[in-house]
Design a protein that fits this description.
The protein is of the alpha/beta class. 45% of the residues lie in helices and 10% in strands.
Length: 219
């Protein structure tokens, strides 16, 4: 990270931290470790971030944009002009869980030999950090909309509000399992890449629905 000018490291439930081995291996970049934040969940890690990219080996996904690491780096640098952005890396053994990937607005893929595409986390972080460094030096256009994207915390509040209103108006999931509707709502709202104003408009609309129902219920 320090080689490529990145400093904001957030660790989600690390097995051991701080650790003398990590400090020794940092070889002069121990200041990045010293200011690292430790949190209990991905949601907490990205609470103040707008654009969130999750690293993946998937070539395509029917619900989320998948970008080559170089294209993703350009978009991340562009979006960082209007608010914090984040890149999610999974653990060494199993990568990112589906629910963690679901928190991302786009998926970032590092092209590799399909016969042996597995990268350890150190190599993945180095490659992505390098592309971020390159993108910072490129002529990146400013985002067309100066309003910051809704943060992870703001999107979580919107999802919770949306689900509450669906329950209040008895808009039910008609699938056999009855558990997929809200997941699909989350995905299309993340794909929309709402800015803060747009998220507030939707929450105001949901509040208006609730306000109309309560007087009718009392009547």
């Amino acid at each position: 990270m320090k080689n490529m000018g990145l400093r904001d490291l957030v660790l989600v439930r690390p097995r051991q931290f701080p650790h003398e081995d990590a400090t020794a291996r940092a070889s002069g970049a121990d200041d990045v470790l010293a200011q690292a934040r430790v949190v209990d969940s991905v949601a907490e890690a990205i609470a103040d971030c707008g654009l969130v990219a999750a690293t993946t080996s998937r070539e395509r996904d029917q619900n989320t944009r998948v970008l080559d690491v170089r294209d993703a780096a350009l978009e991340l640098v562009r979006e960082s002009a209007r608010g914090p952005v984040a890149i999610l890396f999974g653990n060494e053994r199993s990568g990112l869980a589906n629910e963690e990937i679901a928190a991302a607005r786009l998926l970032l893929r590092i092209p590799a030999n399909p016969d042996y595409a597995s990268l350890n986390i150190a190599m993945a972080v180095q490659l992505v950090s390098y592309e971020i460094y390159r993108a910072r030096g490129a002529a990146v256009e400013a985002p067309p909309n100066p309003v910051p994207l809704a943060t992870g915390d703001e999107m979580a509040q919107l999802f919770e509000h949306w689900e509450t209103v669906m329950n209040e108006v008895e808009f039910r999931d008609r699938t056999a399992s009855g558990i997929h509707l809200m997941n699909r709502v989350r995905r299309f709202l993340l794909r929309a890449e709402l800015d803060r104003n747009e998220a507030n408009i939707l929450r105001g609309f949901l509040t208006s629905i609730q306000g109309k129902r309560r007087p009718a219920g009392r009547a």
